Amino acid sequence: MKNKFGMIHTWAACLAGGLLLLLASCSGGGDPQNLLTQEAENDRIVNLFSPMEKIDPNAQNVARSASDLTIIMAEEQLGVTVHYNTYTAENYQDKTYDDVTLDRARNNMDDIYLLNPDTLLALGAEGKLMDLSGLACVKNLREIIRTANTVDGKLVAIPQEVVAYGLFVNVELFRQYELDLPNTPEEFLECCRVFKENGIETPIGANRWWLETFVFAQAYAELYSGGNTEAEIAALNSGEAKYSDYMRPGFEFLKELIDRGYIDVEAAATGEAIETEGPDFLAGKTPIVMAYWGAANTETAYGKTDFEMQVIGFPSSRGQMPVITMTGFGIAEGAEHAQDAMRVLDIILSDEALQVYSQTNRVISPSQNVKVDCVPALQPLNDRIEEGVYVLGSNAGMDVEQWGNTCLIVRKLLNGASVDECMAAFDELQNASLDK
User: Does residue 142 have a pLDDT over 70?
Assistant: First the structure.
């Protein structure tokens, strides 16, 4: 099952204002299937496949993304040239970034790949990715990175950024109706009831990509905070426990939001992220939307509001719960330039490079040593994450891919499926994983 949007989409948007939003429509010049012409026969080349575009790897005086700045560090220190092969919807037509990445990685067409969680899991399980645990930068990683990117005991990918999702709330509307910011599902429902009864037609602005964040917060609050994470995931992977049992409370909660009219179901089933719900939120008509960390940093999303905004976690049994996802850089097992590719990753994922990247994009670093001041609106979400309170929306250690599958099953609910039918879809996915 493909993650059509959530990871790389937000990553691309965050490079122009955060970490992942144009997965299926990212465009760039040139044919991404052809390597840039080598300038000299003795050039040391590392080939990188991603949704980014870098036209001239030797240009020194052009604006570069945060990721490019770290690539420059690797090129200068190692004497290599990193050649970008770029996904473009125009060239690949109906194929998604995930489709193309799987094909290229399985055929060793590149050295380094920027991977979505579902492709990371698939390629890792197939043995198509190298183990990165020997890199020097690994000792500095947050534990969450190891957890989310380990497949069959191998650390197969490392991100430059951790993407946190939260609820973006209009604090002034909450104050107007004397409401505290919600912590639990029950408190959240009460806030929506008050808003609805006071003439706010749609308390929650939603789109077709991110409602699964509500589900993850409730499904896995105990799994990731209860001190028994490894055993619970092992039980899910063996079939002893059922994903549907974890997911059911979140889907029942969404069904209640739908039944009470707190979500515009038609808009949520068809709308694109931010452009659908953003205008009403910015106009003060909708008090609650959901989005990723970087959306609070860019004026093209929610970085400039006319009201006080805060970003909090999703309601759960353990209070406000951030939902974390991430892409990761991986190296093909059969990479032509494997050793140089490993050296490149070790530099761009070093604390020095991650400090540059994180400061440029104002994002959460995968390194436990790199701290960046966040905008005031993000402080509540950041505090929870620094306390170690969060759930993972993508975890390569789970045999059933989470983010993309849950997104698609949520859409079934929006299109009229019952909660039981949605749970049956999870059972089918789990049974398929057990049959492999």
Answer: yes
Q: Pick from 126, 113, 115: which is nearest to 149 by CA? A: 115
Sequence-ordered list of residues with C-beta below 8 angstroms from that of 419, at least 6 positions apart, any chain: 248, 251, 252, 255, 413
**Helical segments of 83-228, H only:** 89-92, 97-106, 117-125, 143-148, 171-176, 185-197, 212-219, 221-225
SS3 20: strand
Residue spans of alpha helices (H) in 293-418: 338-348, 351-361, 379-386, 403-414
* Biggest CA pair distance of the chain: 72
Q: Which residues pair with 113 in a beta bridge?
A: 49, 330
Mean pLDDT of the chain: 86
Contact 63, 45 (CB under 8 A): no
Give the pLDDT of residue 90: 56
211: helix, coil or strand?
coil
DSSP label of 321: B
Q: Which helix (H) or strand (E) holds 310?
A: strand 309-312
The confidence band for 159, taking pLDDT boundaries of 50, 70 and 90, is very high
Q: Is the pTM of this model over 0.85?
A: no
Question: C-alpha angle with apex 315: 312 to 318, nearest 5 degrees?
Answer: 100
Residues 6+ apart with CB under 8 A from 144: 162, 324, 390, 392
